[in-house]
Write a structure and sequence with these properties.
Strand 6, helix 8 and strand 7 form a beta-alpha-beta unit. The protein is of the alpha/beta class and about 250 residues long. Helix content is about 35%, strand content about 15%. The chain has a 6-stranded parallel sheet with strand order 3-2-1-6-7-8, with helices on both faces. A two-stranded antiparallel ribbon has the order 4-5. This is NAD-dependent protein deacylase. It is an enzyme of class 2 (transferase). NAD-dependent lysine deacetylase and desuccinylase that specifically removes acetyl and succinyl groups on target proteins. Modulates the activities of several proteins which are inactive in their acylated form.
Length: about 250
Amino acid sequence: MNDWDRAIGALAAARKVVFFTGAGVSAASGIPTFRDKLTGFWEKHAPEKLETARAFRENPQLVWGWYLWRRSQAGQAQPNAAHLSISRLASTGIQVSVITQNIDDLHKRAGSQNVVHLHGSLINPICFACKRPAELTTEQLQVSAEGQWVEPPRCTRCNGKLRPGVVWFGEDLPSGCWKAALADVKSCDVLISVGTSGIVRPAADIPEIASTSGATVIHVNIADVCLGAPNELMLMGSAEQVLPALLLATPSS
């Protein structure tokens, strides 16, 4: 039996399914992956140089402008067939959870309810000083289509600068999110890892944790990312093509 048929069988028998998603699931919506070359206003800036607390301290206008621009781009994007397929599976009665490394809100806009954002969200800024969550006015969300430097708004409680509510390089994952993710991963029947490179830790450990906990792990990716465990399956292809076909072929979904 090939991996495709085994994946259909595992999914048909599953009561609880966890989707673990990375940048590849949002690529078809027009959101660049981390490794895509930047263009226009940002082409001289490497993303990894804009995604640290140090960068924000040294040039908060540059970093805040970068994230406003990214939020604007994500807001214009629409959920693609992969996001919608995940949401539809939950409507069949199977318990479905989503653990995403993405900082966009496309899973939620596609209708998924149980979504854990391991790396935070573009939609929820926080104060750099006191860490309290904050909300932005419509005026504070304005940014040019090409991108620009923008002075960060101030916290209404401590007057500190607001920063994106995302996990930067060198920062720990939110403990509550990580605990929730581990609980889901260790109790699922099937984990479907979609469009993730398996490089950024500790999130990259999730497929292995699921595998050692007894789940069938199905990888959906344009590159072979299998670790070699007997309960791992590899489905080659893009998320927006493979996921709808897989769920359509599965009797219970």
